[in-house]
Amino acid sequence: MNDRLKALDVLTGSVAAKRDALTYFADKGMSEDDVMDAYWGNYKGTIDTYLWSHNLTRYQVASKTSVKQTQLARAADKGDVRNIKLNVIFAIAETVEVTPGEVLDALIKIQDVMNIEEAELAVEEKRAQAQDEKYLKEHADEVDAALAADVKKLKESDPEGYRCYQLMVKKYVDGGM
Asked: For the chain, what percent of residues have pLDDT higher than 90?
């Protein structure tokens, strides 16, 4: 099996498929984070992910079918698989040589995984923000001193940067940000 399909199992596979894929990559010295960075660092959406896992691009689908690249680009920008037109699903299926149902099932699975990961990321971002706020409250004097030192260094080393900083602070104080 090719590495891209194994990486897709890490992203969207069943528990067993994901475990097998992680074992496969561990034998190559890669952790789950390494796989995600290497294979999903430039994630563009469900269609691109599906095509990527089959070593295909939108251009290749367009050149093999009657669907135009612009249609594929619009479909790739859709936030929900349900909004992708059937002719795009059929074109992808024709190119990959599977049924349209198999393509749709795979796209839904990819979308579901991505939605779960986005929700988990949002929770993690809120937790990190709360930790940052707590730290700032507990260490306000240290933070203020460090900021003052950094601003002084900026003023001495980069007068133009310091001027930009002052303008940004003024906008923030005046309610412009």
From this structure: 27
